[in-house]
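Q: Structure tokens for this one, please.
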Amino acid sequence: MALHDAATDFDVLIVGAGLSGIGAAAHLTMQCPDKSFAILEQRADMGGTWDLFRYPGIRSDSDMHTLGYRFKPWLHEKTIADGPSIWDYVHETSAEYEITPKIKFRHRVLSADWSSATARWTVTARHEDSGETHVYTANFVFMCAGYYDYDKGYRPEFAGEADFKGQILHPQHWPKDLDYTGKKVVVIGSGATAVTIVPVMARQAAKVTMLQRTPTWMVSMPAIDPFSKFVRKFLPEKTAYAITRFKNIWWQRIVYKRARSKPDKVAETLLDMARKELPASIDIGTHFTPPYGPWEQRMCLIPDSDMFKAVSDGSAEVVTDHIDHFTATGIKLKSGAHLDADIIVTATGLNLVTLGKTALSIDGKPTKLSDHFNYKGVMFSDMPNLASVFGYINASWTLKTDIVADYVCRLLKTMDAKGATIANPKLGETDMPRLPFVSDFSSGYFARSFDALPVNGDRHPWRVLQDYMAEKKILTKDAIDDGTLVFSNPPVAAKAANDGVAELAAAE
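A: Here is the predicted structure, written as tokens:
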């Protein structure tokens, strides 16, 4: 029997200490207290997105009753929460479930190799401060590293950038203590980051312009959920949170389904909202009407209509045009107009990555996720003992964390009950088409990254449903042993077990 070093060998290794990683660790603590685990986190602190992004106004773009954990009520008054409050929430969860001592900070995971002979993953990580390489082993790897590159945001090059005399910055790398008081600011982009930054910077800047090629659908919601506020007056916090969470999950589901089945009606509702909020002088058709239907890309949430208010009071403006080139004093547009700027913010998006850019191999042979079909939106075909959290495009991204963690805990218990150390989704011979991991969704960061994502099949369990209620049943209720997931032990261990049975039979 192999001996394992308790300091470097674990039952489960979690990669990433953001919302998903801390949530996964809490579930393991609650549901599988006998399992040893550690978390490898490349940053110096936990929080993931909420530790990385420091741009003005950083906040959730989903309500915290669905972005928060099922098991830990969100107690702040604001449902659309600011980044520091979410950072606190992650830290509170980690402390409450005694997770923090199990996190190995500044450990960037480089590679993970599965050994069929030992039924263990060997995970290699580099310590970001010392540069030293550390090796860890585990029976099971749970990837919670998020979906975008923390090192570099998506940043197209623009003609004439070297001529610009002001400051160019990307929201992912916001400089500390940037003073933009009285400055002219141009924010390039129209996604969630841009509509967050613009109204906040507009409070201090001389003028903020959001420069977009195409508009994005925007929907205003109260920062404080009146329903949650009401039920919290009469019910215990856990009960009020659970009821509000249930209501919001169903509301998200209804809105998404209606947007896909009746896009014209939903579009008109959103445009009516904009018309009521904005002055008649604003060209709604040009600046607030996208050329695609609602939920073909994520809709931008604007709490308490802050973006509409900034445009209405003149502290911000929206310009829909294409960039020709940068000049010494701003941006020249294809239309011939010029936008003066002291600061240019390139809110141009993210670079999507899979499994935190970890190089994967099986028995020393390199493999890519794009070579594998997804299995129940959690595991991957012919990749043993590996699970990943990849959330929703049509609901709060981390809703999936709870149900994936439930599944992993159920899987680990099933393996123990069967005396198995390997669980492998076996694809077998198939003529199943290789479909995109996400369909009917045109956001740029997905379009740029399809080649790196696992593929979808056209039938269960080889397709991602993008349906929380359906996946909740599959992951928390349906049988783990479904005939597709193959349970086994390494050849040596299996032979030893068989030999033991034979010796026992002979003795009898």
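A few notes: The chain has two domains: 9-151+351-496, 161-346. Confidence is low (pLDDT under 50) at residues 500-508.
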